[in-house]
Amino acid sequence: MSTQLGTLEELPQEYRDAMSQIAVAPLWPQMRKVLPHDAPMPVTQAHCWAFSDIRPLLLRAGELTPVEKAERRVLFLVDPGRGAGAMQATSTIYVGMQLLLPGETAPAHKHTPSAARIVVEGEGGYTVVDGDRLPMEAGDLILTPGGCWHDHGHCGSKPVIWLDALDLPLFYYLEASYAVEAPLQTPRNRPDPSEVEYRAAGLAPARRRDIAPPPSYPMMRFPWKRTEQALREYARHGDNGIVELDYINPETGASCLPTLGFTAMMLRQGKSVKPVRRSASAVFHVIAGKGHSTINGKRHDWSAKDVISAPVFAAIDHVAEGDDAFLIRIHDAPLQEKLGFYEERNR
Ligand code: 1HN
């Protein structure tokens, strides 16, 4: 049932002024805006950011602004639905591209929002997370969960660029976002847990759980090489459906971060993929390949290193052209599941 509700204009001006003066407002003119029928009305507009557009401006930032004056040298991606300066690619997802030049370091800090990086370009970069030195190779997913110290460094010879994804919009909205700063960490002299404790899928250290419960974030680095192998094998031997693998906490099977989910996708060349409509918003980062995605009827052409956003409940068709394509989907389904409303709808 849908009835037309009363508008603000229908009310006498002197009544409207009286409400303003005591800091109250009538709900009914805004009721449908905050509670639309059957599905949300997203502010987010789908968009494709070409890496070839971002890269020259980011390298210019390297000339214009020393890292000491930036702390993090980042160009962030602005949702066209929100307009200039909005630190949001979707309602909950912040995405930026960060540049570190050879020899530079970005000092340690920890903050309430959680972050993850996907390495886009360059060799020799590393992030130290709570004392573990994590090498950054192309396509690697590297976590810096809320409350974990992290600093970045670069011992290679060419610029390093990575994508940052954070749940910052959510934390900012909650008035919960802040950081604590510290000098660079001294890394432990050993490979990170993805090379040691969690070297193989399905194996985790045997522990006396009463004395040594597993860490909340046991694995902070997910090397792309292994992810790509896993996707290719799954595509070869799985059914003919969508080839997707979720990044999980190897101790619990839960999403690797509490609010943001990360899903590695392989699109077989020439095959159209039509996922269900999800209540989660999403940002896709193209690791390799080229193709196009039609999102709510509008076509977005993409190639390697580009970033595409999609609002909640978007109808999406992906097509890889020429060769198989690999993407990582960043989404907020883990947050929505925790809040009890994550939903998928058939097309
Ligand atoms: C942050 O801590 C990093 O540590 C990057 O590299 C981007 C954007 C907003 C807030 C914190 C980093 C960020 C950020």
Describe what this molecule looks like in 3D:
By secondary structure, the chain is α+β, with helices and mostly antiparallel strands. The chain has a single domain, classed as Jelly Rolls. It is 17% helix and 33% strand. The strands form 4 sheets. Strands 1, 13, 14, 15, 17, 18, 19 and 20 form an 8-stranded antiparallel β-sheet that branches. A 6-stranded antiparallel β-sheet has the order 2-3-10-5-8-12. The chain is globular and about 75 Å long. The two termini are 24 Å apart. The chain binds 1-hydroxynaphthalene-2-carboxylic acid. The site of 1-hydroxynaphthalene-2-carboxylic acid has 11 residues, from strand 3, strand 9 and strand 10.
Q: Notable features of this structure?
A:
dioxygenase activity, Cupin_2, binds 1-hydroxynaphthalene-2-carboxylic acid, 347 residues, alpha+beta, Jelly Rolls, Cupin, RmlC-like_jellyroll
